[in-house]
Amino acid sequence: MADTLLSQQDKFRRRDRAKQFLDRIAPVLLSLGVFVGVAAVTSLLFTVITTGWSRLSWNLIFAYPSANPQTAGMRSAFLGSFWTVSLSALVSIPLGIASALYLTEWSSHRRLRMFLEFNMANLAGVPSIIFGLVGLSILTYGLGLGRSIIAGAFTLGIMTLPLVTVSAAEAIKSVPEALKHGAYALGATKLQVTRHIILPRSLPMMMTGAILAISRAIGEAAPILVISGLLFIRTDPTSIFDRFTVMPLQIFNWVSRPQPAFQELSSAAIIVLLALLMMFNAAAIAIRYRYQRRVML
Length: 297
Prior knowledge:
The longest helix has 51 residues, at 2-52. The protein folds into 2 domains: 2-55; 59-296, MetI-like fold (Orthogonal Bundle). Helix 3 packs parallel to helix 6, helix 8 (190-219) packs antiparallel against helix 11 (260-296) and helix 10 runs antiparallel to helix 11. The protein has helices at residues 2-52, 58-62, 75-106, 110-123, 128-142, 149-173, 177-185, 190-219, 222-227, 247-255, 260-296. By secondary structure, the chain is mainly alpha-helical. The chain has 11 helices and no strands. One of its GO terms (cellular component) is plasma membrane. It is found in: Cell membrane. It comes from Caldiarchaeum subterraneum. Keywords: Cell membrane, Membrane, Transmembrane, Transmembrane helix, Transport.
């Protein structure tokens, strides 16, 4: 009996030592992981900025692509990215919020709601090239939209829709049930509760999903490559049915060339792309901050 108790005590001591060792080593491993990630991103940004800073100029944005790297720009790609990302946001954000409201507040069929939520979560992890192939077969050829801006924008909108829907649904679920029950007790309808209780309190968190959706759409090259292809465009898009190219494809085109001047141009274009992304994010953050203050007041 005594031997059994001693063996059990030894086991407990070994477990305690192992736990203490893990407690000591875990912060070191986590710090090392953070350091490696930050160092990789910092070195990448440093390389891009040092390589492309000297080529930053208004000519890069306002000039058209050219075989001469000294006069080449990405005006058509810049406008194409602006058109596609803006239109895709107009598609994905309202539809994503409406889908989230239906799944969390309006749907009365439990099995249907679970089925849709499961598929939305799965679609959020589908590779972007699959959405490009679906857009090519349905929008470009099936509906006859061709290789146009509207086809690319709808493809990006469908691609980012699951991300917006999932994040919006989580934001709606974070609204306290007591507020909704109190509104119903005062005689408010479901539409009034949605408009005056749910949306104002969940919209700041919904904007996080919108930021992620815009960030993903503006940097995508694979679906746009399938829809549009590598094009040499020297005209401005004036209609949603025009041919187009985007900044990631223009960067890929310059990177694939052997001349060092085009490598510098690609780095400068990456800086512009990051700046444009930060502008979109800043606008979304400003909207989120504004609604947060309104809710707190």
